[in-house]
From TrEMBL, chains A, B:
GO biological process: isoprenoid biosynthetic process
Name used for this protein in its record: Geranylgeranyl diphosphate synthetase
Superkingdom, natural source: Bacteria
Necessary cofactors: Mg(2+)
InterPro entries: Isoprenoid_synthase_dom_sf, Polyprenyl_synt, Polyprenyl_synt_CS
Keyword Transferase assigned: yes
UniProt KW Metal-binding keyword: yes
Organism: Deinococcus arenae
Amino acid sequence: MRAELLSRVLSLLPDPAHAERPELAAYHAMLRDYPARGGKGIRSDLLLASARAHGVQTGPAWEGALWLAAALELFQNWVLIHDDIEDDSEERRGRPALHRLHGVPLAINAGDGLHAYMWAAVHRAGVPGAMEAFLEMIHRTAEGQHLDLGWVEAREWRLAEGDYLDMVRLKTAYYTVVVPLQLGALAAGAAPHPDFLPAGLALGAAFQIRDDVLNLNGDAQKYGKEIGGDLLEGKRTLIVLHWLAHAPAGQREAFLTQMHRDRPDKDPAVIADIHRWLLESGSVAYAQAYADREAVTGLAALEGALAGAANPQAAQDLLGAMRTLATRDH
Amino acid sequence: MRAELLSRVLSLLPDPAHAERPELAAYHAMLRDYPARGGKGIRSDLLLASARAHGVQTGPAWEGALWLAAALELFQNWVLIHDDIEDDSEERRGRPALHRLHGVPLAINAGDGLHAYMWAAVHRAGVPGAMEAFLEMIHRTAEGQHLDLGWVEAREWRLAEGDYLDMVRLKTAYYTVVVPLQLGALAAGAAPHPDFLPAGLALGAAFQIRDDVLNLNGDAQKYGKEIGGDLLEGKRTLIVLHWLAHAPAGQREAFLTQMHRDRPDKDPAVIADIHRWLLESGSVAYAQAYADREAVTGLAALEGALAGAANPQAAQDLLGAMRTLATRDH
């Protein structure tokens, strides 16, 4: 996230130095922790690129776009606090997850507090339609998260490609691409193009599938997360579901045995075998080809939706940024 | 909560019968679970009484008040879902807590989803100033919750009366009394009287201290919660803090030994002894007298604030309801 945007996010949050009690200073520091760790700022960059494509670059409309960008970053951060608890993740951006530092109860509460500050940013933006867009975003993201967590809870692996795509569109694609595109239009006072929905769902799916691929075969240095981490966490991916449908029975059984164990009880040697089987199977290439097709479909739809953009050059920049995102190597 | 208000709350939530996948029907059922269990509707009743005192009884302003009342109930319910996880409570309104039915990850997520539906109700109300009031309410409630949970986490019992009161004002009094009074005014298009703040903080403290007293000496049938449950949960109350400052060293040590254990490891016989010591000490009477003074102070301030009320009869009803709440026997 850009330094200027981070300052804007932090300006909305209470300053621990002014807290009335030391415990509240600690709470305020918890609210600032995840945002201050920095993130790539993918969604806020996309929102601002969409605003520029819609002709917004200065003045009150640009201020509105900046507050919406801050709200999107706050969304990402409160969701990550709760996700990290839900997945019992160990780390976030190179440091222990918030609940590992402060315990689950305080971390749930801090996530709730940060959620409210997100709405403060939305309110501050004063952009008509933005509140509805954020409501729809949270509804869909929580539905997608329920699918994902419910499958983990039920140790459910009898899933088809369509199940994975339903989950990814709800959980990732909508908030990562659809909503940033829409918010950029709303900041300009324009009605979001209806094709932002199919375009964003396709591009968001391409983005997530590409992420799943990089998690298996990426460059750890560039990618920034643990290679193979998804396997240890038992994540449902297109790659794994495709592989399960084609793998030899012995490999499939070894996989399901590991996936029925909690993370600390998984056998690292067998996980390494599975990692190798996945890479040697055609499933990674299958998923990559799938992502490429989604990217092509999504970019075409987005190009059409931006055909009459207020700022054609900025619209080209937005398309370029979207293309890079959907085909990234880190 | 009144049946009509419950219908309004449920009308905002998705209908499981229309879900696109069975897992999402289960998620939608989770959203409806706590609201459908019913609650006393204390805060929404108070809000509507305040609206009537401000002259609102029909038309769009009354509709606005009803949506704000629905939003307050949704607030209460999402907070309870997360509170039950944070306290690892077993039951809620006579049934297992949501996380005991579905696991912690799905319950955190459902609480987040319900939080967003609360904002949908606030938005639907269309009452200027309501969004700011809800933001301030969540900020304060989360700060109070942080104090409470932080003390539990740190097993901190070196607390004074003022610490308890800081916590109760932030965590309970503000959302239980201050905000309902303010929202009633806002629904009428009036500026909330500044004395709603001190009045509501005093009345809310009286309400909570009275609840702490009933938890020790109430009639289980009427009170509806487990008598002595606060002791098992290790809750900080004015009674316990007063008693700790005056109890014989042996009793104090026995108490702290139990409080340093998790709930399942507490010794029921010793907890029963402590319960008896508390009842036999002067601390319950001390707390009750404290609550009575807060109630008198709060009612006087509220009476002053309502002196010029648009509807004097409804203002008297509001004062009567507030008096009953602060001095209730169940």
